[in-house]
Specification:
- The chain has three helices and no strands.
- With about 120 residues, it is mainly alpha-helical.
């Protein structure tokens, strides 16, 4: 009889601990969900500010930005949108695109100087 009471007490304690652990898991899941929701909202606000301050974008530029927000832009080789790439490949592609944009900006600046214009 005393053994049963001890086992019953141990079982009740184990059930309470398990319930507390499950409550902790549920709370952590809720915190994670709220954190993600907050970060998404903050990112949306930031993007809205940048887009509102930017000059009008071409359709191509909008498509390119939309692809970036979906998880990666179309690589120079031209795979289908939404295709997952290895992070290193994405970094190399972004670096190459950045270099290309820098080169284009330098060429535009040189052309402007050639016709006697000034760069702001």
């Amino acid at each position: 009889m005393a053994g049963n009471l001890k086992l019953r007490s141990q079982l009740a304690n184990a059930e309470r601990r398990l319930k507390a652990q499950l409550d902790d898991v549920a709370r952590r899941a809720e915190v994670d969900r709220l954190r993600t929701e907050y970060q998404t909202s903050a990112l949306a606000d930031h993007i809205t500010k940048i887009v509102d301050a930017a000059p009008p974008l071409s359709v191509e530029q909008r498509d390119r930005l939309a692809l970036l927000l979906r998880g990666g832009a179309e690589p120079p080789g031209g795979s289908a949108p939404g295709t997952q790439q290895h992070p290193a490949e994405r970094r190399h592609r972004q670096r190459d695109e950045s270099r290309e944009l820098t080169t284009q900006a330098e060429q535009a600046e040189a052309e402007l100087h050639a016709v006697g214009g000034e760069v702001a």
